[in-house]
Specification:
With 458 residues, the protein is α+β, with helices and mostly antiparallel strands. The protein contains eleven helices and 17 strands. β1, α1 and β2 form a beta-alpha-beta unit. The chain is globular, with a radius of gyration of 22 Å.
């Protein structure tokens, strides 16, 4: 390889995207990934860009900020979005993927790229030269310790949880039914309805069920346990109030019994994990219950009495940096601009958000290698707004952040038609801007599969 290369640490969503963008810009990349030789407690699969929690990339609609972020990335030539679109599974108005096919697609693309060298090894020291650290929220202990020493900042941490997956053939479809809320998209979700008495019994069992002991590497942090709202364990959410689940993941509105107008008291939804439809995950059921309790309590859900669990829910540590004190809007370190960071360790929360940070870090690492000025998308885009949030020195109480329109620069004028019309106007402005800056920013070809119409991908 050429002496001038970029090192990328970690082949998760952010690292995979960063490596791809730098290589597509013509700069050789050395991509370090410690799997399969070494895995964290959350990892199960050997492939790159493993989705360790849900298989959903959330809303596909442009009136939603993460839906807009997906379209921004498509038009910016994102590898992650290309893989997601080509390995999608039915999910109504959301974009969900066959997680193994998704990972395999990205792994093959990276392994076959002529400018990417894959090095299967753990990194314990920061390399010389331009580096993108995208080692994820489960950064290995050795590298996390080294980063803490180098940055001089105490890392923050919270806990994340994954939902269980069941075998479709063991779901009792005489009690469950296919539907999508309000009829949006195809009827791709399995709905397990509960009447009030069923819900009450389930609720009492859930809030009193036995939780798993945190793994050894997490015990020191049990007293300061913080759980990110977007991945809160279902049992923790339930303890906030008897009806909390009914206004959250078990909301029955828009899901009437087939052939009637009557809605259940509560509804548990399951979403396909793969294109074949043989595996389904319990939507919103991230959990930290012990496996036996998961089998007992979730088996109280109508239709799941005899369900075979292909994977039980798990909980694991996530660690992120105090990015507003450390990073610039291009995701480079202020005190050492050759060092870039990307992914959830920067405080962006979510699969698509992680990929977006990897895209921007990879593009700008390549620009630094070529002596070019950075590309800093304006905050009228979601990708730009997220970058400016994590690098905003005025943020004093930093928390992980999903894509949302509250981060995006306001329109500056009123829009008739309410919130949806306003969000559509924000989306149109963002996509028009990306269309004007792509060529001047030296960005590679966009993902052509979903850019034939101006922002109408659903």
């Amino acid at each position: 390889m050429s002496e001038c290369f970029i090192t990328v640490i970690g082949a998760g969503l952010a690292g995979a995207e960063a490596a791809w963008q730098a290589a597509e810009a013509g700069v050789p990349v050395r991509l370090f990934e410690m799997k399969p030789e070494k895995k964290t407690p959350a990892h199960r699969y050997d492939g790159f860009a493993e989705l360790v929690c849900s298989n959903s990339l959330r809303s596909a609609q442009l009136s939603n900020a993460v839906g807009l972020l997906k379209e921004e990335l498509r038009r910016l030539g994102s590898l992650i979005m290309e893989a997601a679109d080509r390995n999608a599974v039915p999910a109504g108005a959301a974009l969900a993927v066959d997680r193994r096919a998704f990972s395999d697609y990205i792994t093959e693309k990276l392994r076959s790229h002529p400018k990417i060298e894959i090095i299967p090894a753990e990194v314990t020291e920061l390399p010389d030269g331009i580096t993108v650290t995208a080692s994820g929220p489960l950064t290995s202990d050795a590298l996390a310790k080294r980063l803490g020493e180098y940055l001089g900042e105490k890392s923050l941490s919270f806990f994340d949880a994954a939902a269980p997956i069941v075998d479709f053939s063991t779901i009792d479809m005489s009690k469950a039914y296919f539907a999508s809320r309000y009829g949006k998209g195809e009827a791709s979700y399995i709905n397990c309805p509960m009447e009030r008495e069923e819900y009450e019994r389930f609720y009492e069992a859930l809030i009193t069920a036995e939780e798993a002991e945190l793994k050894d590497f997490d015990r020191a942090q049990q007293r300061d346990l913080k759980v990110f709202e977007g991945c809160m364990p279902v049992e923790v959410m339930a303890r906030r109030g008897r009806d909390t689940l009914r206004y959250g993941p078990l909301k029955p509105v828009g899901l009437p019994y087939p052939g009637t107008d009557r809605e259940p008291y509560a509804v548990v939804q399951l979403r396909a994990e793969n294109r074949e439809g043989t595996m389904y995950n319990l939507v919103g059921f991230q959990t930290h219950l012990i496996f036996g309790e998961q089998k007992r309590v979730f088996g109280m859900i109508p239709g799941l009495e005899n369900a075979a669990f292909l994977r039980y829910g798990v909980m694991h540590r996530n660690t992120y940096l105090n990015s507003p004190r450390l990073l610039s809007p291009d995701y480079s370190l202020r005190k050492e601009p050759r060092l870039f960071f990307a992914g959830q360790m920067t405080g962006v929360e979510g699969y698509v958000e992680s990929a977006a940070s990897g895209w921007l870090a990879g593009v700008n690492a390549a620009k630094r290698a070529k002596g070019e000025p950075p590309f800093l998308p304006e905050s009228i885009t979601v990708i730009g707004a997220l970058a400016r949030y994590v690098s905003d020195e005025n943020v004093t109480s930093f928390q992980p952040m999903n894509a949302n329109f509250g981060l995006v620069a306001p329109l500056g004028h009123r829009v008739k038609g309410g919130k949806a019309a306003k969000n559509e106007a924000l989306a149109a402005r963002s996509l028009a801007y990306i269309g004007t800056v792509r060529e001047t920013a030296g960005i590679g070809p966009m993902h052509s599969e979903n850019t034939e119409t101006e922002g109408n991908h659903i």
